[in-house]
Amino acid sequence: MINRKTLLELGWILPSIAIPVGMLVAVIVSAFGMMIHVPSDEGTILPAAIDSTPPFDQPGVLRQVGPNQYEVAIVAQIWVFNPREIRVPAGAEVTFVATSRDVIHGLDIEGTNVNVMLIPGRITRQNAIFKEPGVYRFVCHEYCGAGHHLMFGQIIVEEP
Ligand code: CUA
């Protein structure tokens, strides 16, 4: 026979088990079912070798890797992005391959899921699909010194 006190206890205990189990299931479903991941570490690079290592030897050059799929390299350094302007056709899926030459910078592109750290010695990859023509600004969002606020640029998405 379950008395009132036991019911009250169960009323607390069961949700406190169900809520973390539900959150665990949500994490597993989003990671393995929907393939949502944090941007991954895509390898290492010596900052001194950036200028001679593809794709960073040609920053800003759009390379077509598939039907309406492109890849573009970005190099961040104090206090500028190279390039500051990238032009892509509307509907394009663009993979940004980026690194930093000196200190930790960030890359945040408005209206997209690109929101990554650029760490010297490491390569970061993140892709985004630009459905609508327009201007998408990007900024450095890791404080990197006196000129941090000067680190910005834009992606111009053109009518195909
Ligand atoms: Cu680069 Cu802040």
Write a brief structural summary:
Helices cover 19% and strands 41% of the residues.
Provide key terms for this protein.
single chain; about 160 residues; alpha+beta; six-stranded mixed beta sheet; binds dinuclear copper ion
Shape: elongated
Cofactors and ligands: dinuclear copper ion
- What's the end-to-end separation, in Å? 72 Å
Which percent band covers the strand fraction? 35-45%
Number of strands: 11
Question: What structural category characterises the helix and strand content?
Answer: alpha+beta
Weakly predicted, low-confidence segments: none
- How much is the average pLDDT? 92
Largest sheet: 6 strands, mixed
Rg, nearest Å? 22 Å
Helix/strand order, N-terminal first: HEEEEEEEEEEE
What is the number of helices? 1
Share of helix, binned: 10-25%
Give a description of the structure.
Helix content is 19%, strand content 41%. A hairpin with a 2-residue loop joins strand 2 and strand 3 (69-77). It has 1 helix and 11 strands. The strands form 2 sheets. Strands 1, 2, 3, 4, 6 and 9 form a 6-stranded mixed beta sheet that branches. Strands 5-11-10-7-8 form a 5-stranded mixed beta sheet, with no helix packed on it. The protein has one helix spanning 4-33; strands at 41-44, 63-66, 69-77, 80-82, 85-89, 92-100, 105-109, 115-118, 122-130, 134-139, 152-158. With 160 residues, it is an alpha+beta fold. The longest helix is centred in the first third of the chain and has 30 residues, at 4-33. Bound molecules: dinuclear copper ion.
